[in-house]
Amino acid sequence: MNRRELLKATAALPLLSAARPSSAMVAMDWPTHTISMIVPFPAGGQADLAARPIAHALEQILGKSVIVDNRAGGAGGAIGNAAAARAEPDGYTLLMTLSSLAVLPEADRLFDRPAVYEVSQFAPVARVLADPTLLAIPASAPWKTLEEFVADARKRPGEIRYGSSGPYGTLHVAMEMFAASAGIKLQHIPYRGAAPALNAILTGTVDAVASAPGTLRQLVDDGKMRVLANWGAERIASFPDLPTFKERGYQDVEFYIWAGLFAQKALPQPIMTRLREAMAQSVKNPEVIKTFETAGSPVAYMDAPEFAKFVETDSARLVAAVKRIGRVE
Length: 329
What we know:
Strand content: 15-25%
Family: Belongs to the UPF0065 (bug) family.
CATH architecture of the largest domain: 3-Layer(aba) Sandwich
Number of domains: 2
Helix content: 40-55%
Number of strands: 11
CATH class of the largest domain: Alpha Beta
CATH superfamily of the largest domain: Bordetella uptake gene, domain 1
Strand order of the largest sheet: 2-1-3-10-4-11
Low-confidence stretches: 1-20
Structural class: alpha/beta
Order of helices and strands: HHEHEHEHEEHEHEHEHEEHHEH
Keywords: Receptor, Signal
Radius of gyration: 23 Å
Number of helices: 12
Mean pLDDT: 89
InterPro entries: BUG, Bug_dom1
CATH topology of the largest domain: D-Maltodextrin-Binding Protein, domain 2
Protein name: Tripartite-type tricarboxylate transporter, receptor component TctC
């Protein structure tokens, strides 16, 4: 290439650059087609409870379909979380997940396995719900109080069965925290999500489960289940008579099931801004508020900056809990 040809080629570069759409232009166009919201659990659990009304509200705000995609592949939600982490960071694959997001990579490391994803791959968008976990048993169970449950478990180590959403999922970690503090041994029966675990307790396959208030309220009202204790720091409005574990002397037993929306870390900032605005609107939607309150899980909204700090703090606490629990087969 001679000097004249080089100058002509160089002069054309700004024109070529200008022809490419900027990230702001991309955000103005977003979304142009259907958005997928991955829920890494079966329908009926806390993440699904959060996702469905939010997805419907986002459709109204963004003008495009938002499809809830339940990835009920087990592994405590790891499979769905990993799928969202690997997705293109274009705003068309979102993740509505639970606090176990931080636990599962640490569990992989406990077993010397490569983590299938890392929390650092995600950008927190908004927290939607945040409920303390409740210890629930069938209404037909012999235990009327937490003290009776613990006393029986001490007499029969490993015989009382509890269901979970999978190894090191939210329900598993909560129960093992309690068992370690109480000095009891329970039998862990993992399922592919919170809903199958609840079904197992209703059919008598397991004897106990840790679950969120929103998924238990109707079952308790219908006389099918009974609750014995609350993993929160305080009693909650939907179960005002239910004592906390701390009230019963278990000072180190505290656990919350929060649900939040995440995108990929590399999501263009203009799209993230639009998504945050849409989420701020969606949690004010009367149908969203009504759905959550009817389920006993009121909106617990946090915008991205506050939510990111919350995730960092909560994740550190949960990772420390998993390390204390150690390898649980």
